[in-house]
Amino acid sequence: MNLEGYTLQLILREIENGSLSPEDVNEFYYKRSVELNSVLNAYITLLEPRSRAEGDLKGIAIAIKDNISTKGIRTTCASKMLENYVPPYDATAVSSLKKHGGSVLGKTNMDEFAMGSSGENSAFGPTRNPLNKEYVTGGSSSGSAAAVAADMAPIALGSDTGGSVRAPASFTGIVGFKPSYGAISRYGLIAYANSLEVIGILGKSVEDVKILFKMIAGKDPMDSTSINVDLKEKNISKPNILVIKSFVELSSEEVKKEFYNSIGKLESAGFGISYVDKFSLTDYMLSSYYTIACAEASTNLSRYDGIRYGPKVESASNWRDYISKARSFFGPEVKARIMMGTFILSAGYYETYYLRALQLRKMIKQEFEKIISGYDAVYVPTMPVLPWKIGKAIEDPKIAYAADVLTVLPNLTGSPAISIPVGKVREFFVGGQFIGLRAEDMKVLKVAAIAENVLQVKKNGRN
């Protein structure tokens, strides 16, 4: 049996009509994962199939990013700090999947504690791009993207703090959906930056991510920031979208060419296309994002002290020595962001940096809500560049930081955003993202589904 290119939608349909069994499906993905993982390094932990044909998901096993808690299954955040941590509970999103008949296929590789844009900052080694194993997958949900793109999983959960679902989706030629802040409960998501991060979905089609989203979305008493979003289908046939030119101009020539080609195709298909020259706060998005994210990371990761969480320090000559040993289990990128966040929150700099970043965030949200008024979605490239070779961003970290410039906006505003393949350059794909207003997730999914049908960049998937 060969399920390469099969979408979740098709798998469920064929199980329903008796053409496939859940056991056969899970066996295929497990065996393929065992075969390819030594090359791609998509999984940190892989589980033997244990399927029961029940619920909407028919017992299908799903890949879960390794910062999402899974009861009884090692959850490492790709860090030596949590190398042997086994959560005593499931994240709400995982519980919801299980209630719908899903199971866990494995825990996917990632940038350590979700800090990174390339998939290289893992204590377990970099994830390799299925399109070319010498290149990065994008991060931080690198393993989830690689697993879906390489047919090592039918669909996957990831997390998105500043583009961590959409970036790897763009780099691997799949669909990555970041829902509105609060639309999916964050209970059980190991925290990096609470006010920015969400659990997201990576799949082969817009329909696939929508199927899973409707199963796991909704208000959760365990997460006070969670909200109910309208899950009714939207009646849109000819979407009106807004293109921010200054965002497009931040991209490489190859990305710009494919992106503008996609606009032409959408316009020919009846999309209403409007342009705005500049988002006036573009230059401040990245700095405000990293200021807030690092400040929150500094606070969240203080719990990894060898007492509450993390490996126990057996001996230390003094308190400074103890802290040094306890924190030695963090990788260099995590240490750098903790140090940056601690500096930002220190006396004398808190108002200068952190409070100003919060003020900028509010202004960015207000401007975004103003320009999107009257449109179904904003349409911009997902990543400004194509994937780079593994090791390049380690030598020059600015490459990875700058790559987030087009993806941080929805995290600052709490908006839903989805990346779909809109063009191709050599073996790689160019992603385009549709961004909407908070709680209008179904509208964004509808617009993306129409665009996906028009562009049909990925023709090897079977629906």
Query: How would you write the strand order of the largest sheet?
Result: 1-3-2-6-8-7-12-13-11-9-10
The share of residues in extended strands comes to 5-15%
Low-pLDDT residue intervals, each spanning 5 or more residues: none
Order of helices and strands: HHEEHEEEHEHEEHEHHEHHHHEHHHEEH
List the helices and strands and how they pair.
Blueprint (H helix, E strand, L loop, with lengths): L7 H9 L5 H19 L2 E4 L14 E5 L26 H8 L3 E6 L19 E2 L2 E5 L5 H8 L6 E5 L5 H7 L2 E4 L19 E6 L2 H11 L23 E5 H4 L4 H16 L3 E5 L5 H19 L18 H8 L5 H14 L4 H23 L4 E5 L10 H4 L2 H5 L6 H5 L3 E9 L2 E8 L5 H15 L8
Looking at this protein, list some descriptive labels.
single chain, alpha/beta, 11-stranded mixed β-sheet
Question: How would you briefly describe this protein structure?
Answer:
The protein is α/β, with parallel strands linked by helices.
Task: Please provide a written account of the structure.
The chain is an alpha/beta fold. The protein has a domain at about 280-360. The chain is built from 16 helices and 13 strands. It has helices spanning about 10-15, 20-40, 90-100, 140-150, 165-170, 205-215, 245-250, 255-270, 280-300, 320-325, 330-345, 350-370, 390-395, 400, 410-415, 440-455; strands at about 45, 60-65, 105-110, 130, 130-135, 155-160, 175-180, 200-205, 240-245, 270-275, 375-380, 415-425, 430-435. α9 (about 280-300) packs across α12 (about 350-370). It is globular, with a radius of gyration of 21 Å. The two termini are about 15 Å apart. The mean pLDDT is about 95.
